[in-house]
Amino acid sequence: MRLKALIVATVMAAVAGNAYAADIIRFGTEGAYPPFNQIDASGKLTGFDVDIANALCVQLKAECTIVTQDWDGIIPALNGKKFDALVASMSITPERQQAVDFTDPYYTNKLQFVAAKGSDFSPVKLKGLVLGAQRATIAGTWLEEHVKDAEIKLYDTQDNAYLDLSSGRLDAILADKFVNWDWLKSDGGKDFEFKGEPVFDNDKVAIAVRKGDDALRQKLNGALKAIVANGTYKKINDKYFPFNIYQ
Amino acid sequence: MSLDLDVAVTYLPKLLDGARLTVQLVVFSGLIGLILAVPLGIARSSERLWVKGGPWAYIFFFRGTPLMVQLFLVYYGLSQFPAVRHSALWPFLRDPYWCALLTMALHTAAYIAEILRGAIQAVPRGEVEAGVALGMKHGVILRRIVLPRAVRIALPAYSNEVILMLKGSALASTITLLELTGMARTIIAKTYMPVEIFLAAGAFYLAISYVIVRLFKLLEWHLARHLRHRG
């Protein structure tokens, strides 16, 4: 379905007059997670994550490429050196910390259910329902850990989960609040709404690097601090959300 | 990197559950596909255009598009139409298991029909003529000479097709089924140990295809018993 085409998003740092060879950072992302990372109609990789990666590259005067990779193989691909850093809206979890190292968070996510408008769905009575989430996400893990008496269906992409919510195969979806927010604004989500309070509200999202790659991790941390301080971060934030997602 | 095979052992029961669903999908889709393929293959080998036209188009469509596209069309595509969601078929099409089974059966039927057509056309002319000379009717020739002969000719190619469907069944994981591949990917999402888990899943696939190969060998041997010795 999805072309795993190599997409060179931008070559930023090679400005005229910069004669010395710039650092090269290869980023990986999923490319199927709007509004954070997605491929637009013209085949270009766009989204919040992509803008952040590009801003970090400008800050570091590095030369950057961004490639896409299916979500459930994205950590193995990082560790297999297909790229050097993951900027893919990845939550910091203890399990992932066994496999990769994380930079400082670049936004704070919440998990919140979405179901049909007017349905009596409530996050406190899930018994017997069919709930969906994307495979290998903290939403999927949350469902598996907290919900024992409902059926849980896991999808390869968030889009496929939304398709099954709108077809009625699912009673509700648990996903990242901002991703849900973006979908609810779209035509496909117009008959659905948030249900209840977020079930988890302090999910820190960061860039992942290979274990022990402290040089790159610290460089990215420094650049992240700088773009937050100089207003670049806010500009990117405001392009996608009318509220602050940093804290 | 080093392998941690304990992880694979821990999740063996889960993988076994997945393997069970894989076998179910392959066996049932293979049988339904076979049942559909017999009339299709016979009609396809006809010399009359109005008889072979329909099967030709069916086979052309199902052989010419990827199984994954067909699965998506049936599972995600049909469900987007309110008419489908309100039809009597919805309880059936709502379930990923039935969608996978239906799609795989329709897909493999096209291939089996084509295998059967080749086999029917490969039945030696002389044997058919012998039937005609004995005054057999068309249906009797088909039932007693052409089909038994064609089945023996088609069997090795059919066993190949079943093994291809075994591997094709991995695509059912894309419509949320936790068959062997889906289960392996879900376990990997928890453990981040793709090499170990995929090795274990691969071993299951090998074991299943070994059993399929042996069963077909046995069947071939059984069907060729009249050719071995008489006495």
Automatic annotation (TrEMBL), chain A:
Keywords, ordered alphabetically: Signal
Limits of the Ionotropic glutamate receptor C-terminal domain: 24-243
Subcellular locations according to the entry: Cell envelope
GO MF annotations, alphabetized: ligand-gated monoatomic ion channel activity
Signal listed as a keyword: yes
Boundaries of every Solute-binding protein family 3/N-terminal domain copy: 24-244
Pfam families documented for this protein: SBP_bac_3 (PF00497)
Keyword Signal annotated: yes
SUPFAM superfamilies from the UniProt entry: Periplasmic binding protein-like II
Predominant location category: other
GO cellular component labels: cell envelope; membrane
Cleavable signal peptide: 1-21
PANTHER family, sorted: ARGININE-BINDING EXTRACELLULAR PROTEIN ARTP, MEMBRANE-BOUND LYTIC MUREIN TRANSGLYCOSYLASE F
Protein family (similarity comment): Belongs to the bacterial solute-binding protein 3 family.
Protein name: ABC transporter substrate-binding protein
UniProtKB/TrEMBL annotation, chain B:
Subcellular location: Cell inner membrane; Cell membrane
Record has rRNA-binding as a keyword: no
Gene3D superfamilies (alphabetical): MetI-like (1.10.3720.10)
ABC transmembrane type-1 domain mapped to chain residues: 19-216
Chief place where the protein resides: membrane
Record key words, sorted: Cell inner membrane, Cell membrane, Membrane, Transmembrane, Transmembrane helix, Transport
Annotated transmembrane regions: 21-43, 55-77, 197-216
GO biological process: amino acid transport
Record's GO cellular component terms: ATP-binding cassette (ABC) transporter complex
Membrane topology term: Multi-pass membrane protein
Family matches, as Pfam families: BPD_transp_1
Gene Ontology terms for molecular function: transmembrane transporter activity
PANTHER family recorded: ARGININE ABC TRANSPORTER PERMEASE PROTEIN ARTM, MEMBRANE COMPONENT OF AMINO ACID ABC TRANSPORTER
Family: Belongs to the binding-protein-dependent transport system permease family. HisMQ subfamily.
Protein name listed in UniProt: ABC transporter permease
Protein species of origin: Magnetospirillum aberrantis SpK
